[in-house]
Automatic annotation (TrEMBL):
PROSITE patterns: PROKAR_LIPOPROTEIN (PS51257). This is ABC transporter substrate-binding protein. Pfam families: SBP_bac_1. SUPFAM superfamilies: Periplasmic binding protein-like II. InterPro entries: Bact_solute-bd_prot1 (IPR050490), SBP (IPR006059). Residues 1-28 form the signal peptide. It comes from Glutamicibacter arilaitensis. The lineage of its organism: Bacteria, Bacillati, Actinomycetota, Actinomycetes, Micrococcales.
Length: 434
């Protein structure tokens, strides 16, 4: 856990009143503590573990909770990640949000709190918040906790060790130049180097986010988030770095329309099935890949991971991590049992099961030793020892700025934009928020 090591600092958004003013409709499904005529309390729960062992495990979690809480039914809705985000936005606007849902923190959470959509868990979940420690920081506003993170980790390159060996690459790239050199070796060996789900935009955007974390100092990054300011030249340099990689042509054929995680031809599917050598993705990747292969093992023993490389001359700490996490939040109008359910999902038992299936990096310290995949387990140490931890930009800056940013980065990947236009689009969206 972060607080057990050097106390890595999550650079979540410093929530200001201007940023909070997002036009979401207030209200949520169900009255607090109300029960229908049959005496049953129904909890609606949305999550994105929509295949394989993860989906089955969450079904068991719901059933176990029901068994221990007479009169409570958990209505589970598992869906593909992008579908869930779209449906959540629509549900909040219509006033029919699920009782329990996934919150990513930062500006997104701040907007939900400002609109009165998300329940304050500070008192009800004080025990869980205590053991979460600094891990809960990205879901706290003005001293209050609005969601309980169950998984938190950084992004990096997941790679196929066998394909690296076939291409004569004997060690993971440590610098950006070495990354580009590795893609050239893979291409010469007849191997597509990198898959990217640019069709969903955010996987492509992660390249610019990470390049900015490597180019910008920690203070510059913190000031940018607090002041919504992209004037430092490090942001332009980040775009130039990404453009250099794009021009090396390392990505899978058709990457501009490739989805992130849905099906065997997605970016994750291509990596899982040995069609490409690596992919920049978050800590969730092993669990996703397991659901995309017939044997349910993903890449298995060939799974490797290395952090986003250092950019020569950059002002950012090369050990800093970009990433994020997922937390369980409760809609403001949800029944009291929904809070109990969220607390249960942070319990030792549930978090250990989550870790054993390599579904992500658990936040409950009691589950730390339960991760079975060695590559994923190594991410726990990387997370805990990072000098600081930067939330994904579209989470930290919020939907409006993040959306404009991601759109322009996707255009860069398509050869229709440049480094300065990404900065300009981000600043224009930020100025509207001020």
């Amino acid at each position: 856990m972060l607080s057990e090591t050097r106390g890595a600092q999550i650079l979540a958004l410093a929530a200001t009143t201007a940023l909070l003013a997002t036009g979401c409709a207030a209200g949520a499904g169900g009255g607090e503590g109300e029960k229908p005529a049959d005496g049953k309390t129904t909890i609606t729960w949305w999550h994105n573990s929509n295949n394989g062992d993860g989906k089955a495990y969450y079904g068991k979690v719901a059933a176990d909770f029901e068994a221990a809480h007479e009169g409570v039914d958990v209505e589970v809705n598992a869906m593909q990640h992008e579908d869930m985000l779209t449906k959540l936005d629509a549900a909040f606007q219509s006033g029919d949000a699920p009782d329990v849902y996934m919150e990513r923190g930062g500006g997104e959470l701040a907007a939900h709190v400002a609109a009165g959509l998300t329940k304050d868990l500070t008192e009800a979940a004080s025990e869980e918040i205590a053991f979460l420690g600094e891990n809960a920081g990205g879901w706290q506003l003005e001293g209050k906790t609005y969601a309980l993170p169950f998984s938190l980790g950084g992004a990096g390159f997941w790679y196929n060790k066998a394909l690296f060996k076939e291409a004569g690459i004997d060690k993971a790239p440590q610098t950006f130049s070495e990354l580009i050199d590795a893609t050239e070796k893979l291409k010469k060996a007849g191997i597509d180097p990198i898959s990217v789900g640019a069709g969903d935009k955010w996987p492509a955007a992660h390249y610019w986010y990470y390049a900015a974390v490597r180019e910008c100092s920690q203070q510059t990054m913190a000031d940018s988030i607090a002041n919504l300011d992209f004037s430092d030249q490090c942001f332009t340099k980040a775009g130039e770095d990404v453009d250099k990689l794009i021009k090396a042509e390392p990505f899978n054929p058709g990457f501009l329309s490739t989805p992130a995680q849905s099906g065997p031809t997605s970016a994750s599917g291509l990596l899982a099935t040995g069609k490409v050598a690596m992919e920049l993705a978050g800590h969730w990747e092993p669990g996703v890949m397991q659901g995309l292969t017939e044997d349910g093992k993903g890449m298995g023993d060939d799974t490797g991971w290395f952090p986003f490389p250092e950019i020569e001359g950059g002002q950012g700490d090369p050990a800093a991590q970009l990433g994020g996490g997922d937390a369980w939040a409760v809609s403001e109008g949800a029944p009291d049992a929904a809070v109990d359910f969220v607390k249960y999902m942070l319990s030792d038992e549930v978090q250990r099961g989550f870790a054993e299936l390599d579904m992500g990096l658990p936040t409950n310290p009691a589950a730390k030793g339960a991760i079975s995949d060695p590559a994923l387990a190594s991410l726990m140490d990387v997370r805990d020892k990072a000098p600081y931890f930067q939330l994904y930009f579209d989470t930290a800056f919020g939907a409006s700025i993040g959306g404009a940013m991601n759109d322009e980065i996707a255009l860069l990947f398509a050869g229709q934009s440049d480094a300065q236009k990404i900065v300009d689009a981000s600043q224009d969206a930020a100025d509207l928020e001020k």
